[in-house]
Amino acid sequence: MSEVSVNRLVEFVKAHYGTNEFIPLHAPVFRGSEQTYVANTIASTFVSSVGEYVNRFEQDMATYTGAEAAVATVNGTAALHVGLRLAGVSQGDLVITQALTFVATCNAIHYCGAEPVFIDVDEFTLGLSPGAMESWLQEHASLDGSGACIERETGRKIAACMPMHTFGHPADLAGLVEVCERWSIPLVEDAAESLGSFYQGRHTGTFGTVAALSFNGNKIITTGGGGMILSGAETARRAKHLTTTAKKPHPYEYVHDEVGYNYRLPNINAALGVAQLEQLPDFLAEKRALADDYRQLFRGTEFQFVDEPDGCRSNFWLNAVLCPDEASRNHLLEMTNANNVMTRPVWQLMCDLPMYQHCTRGELNTSRSIAQRLVNLPSSVKPA
Ligand SMILES: *Cc1c(COP(=O)(O)O)cnc(C)c1O
């Protein structure tokens, strides 16, 4: 049974991409105006830190997501770092997040001098579980005199909650917003993987104080490297200031009023982004069709296709299946990779990495079960 399913998967992926050559997990595709727009930046000499494509990319992204404002950054990790700072995270604070995530989520917390608290994920979203977060808070936190949420044992402030929309599937945002409001914790969404994903009709990354997107080469659209901060207008002004060396506008003087960052997105990268964003609706349609085929392929097998949660519209950035156990996962990984079809297990849990091993955590049973059984499948849009 298992052997048959794996063979059918390999045959399906090869037929879908029409090749016997190596099939990567996720490769960028440039089928629109990328060459023209990038060439324009070179012709104009505005390839670097100022230029029209940066403004256009920010405006187009705000329009697409429905966010009040968008600020482009050099990568998604930088967007997360500044996003956390804008939410008020500083030295010695705690930030609630999930153990099942990419390392950048936790690194951004660390850059603020804060530490992650690892809470379990929900099985059907793969995102931070509001129920698990509420339980942990009831056991370990209280609101102090000023209304701030404090870890009782250490007195450390729980300064933010940062869920991640795993593989583009929205986390339970209604539940998370409710828990965050009850405990006065700012919500910062790691929406790096979820451009094009909607929760009850609203774009992911517009539910909290601030959110981060990524346009790394493996994401649904790419700028080579790049990211975006989504927020309200006032927060966006602060974001722009902090990400551009905190320079005050002046015709010629260098006036910097705080320690800022050089986190700007170069105009040449933004040109790529504008062209890619124009194609996002097509990419989303193709990815949804591929997800439909994967769902059909695994129906009635021992493999469980990871589907979009109820009430959500996922971007299906990276398709995934849950295997019945670790042994069958390993078998699937070996058989596909040996046959030129790239597949990967999910990240190691953050709480098991050497630099985050000491961090506080709740129960992580679902995270552990998923980490042992999940396999990501080739999900690229087809080249031109
Ligand atoms: C890609 C990604 C990021 C940020 O990535 P950059 O490579 O810095 O753009 C952050 N968090 C998650 C979950 C990601 O997948």
TrEMBL record:
Which GO terms label this protein's molecular function in UniProt? transaminase activity
Q: Which InterPro entries match?
A: DegT/StrS_aminotransferase (IPR000653), LegC-like (IPR026385), PyrdxlP-dep_Trfase (IPR015424), PyrdxlP-dep_Trfase_major (IPR015421), PyrdxlP-dep_Trfase_small (IPR015422)
Q: Which UniProt keywords apply?
A: Aminotransferase, Pyridoxal phosphate, Transferase
Q: Does the keyword Glycoprotein apply?
A: no
Q: Which Pfam families match?
A: DegT_DnrJ_EryC1
SUPFAM superfamilies recorded for this chain?
PLP-dependent transferases
Q: Family assignment?
A: Belongs to the DegT/DnrJ/EryC1 family.
Protein name, entry field: Aminotransferase DegT
Instruction: Please spell out the taxonomic lineage of the organism that makes this protein.
Output: Bacteria, Pseudomonadati, Pseudomonadota, Gammaproteobacteria, Pseudomonadales
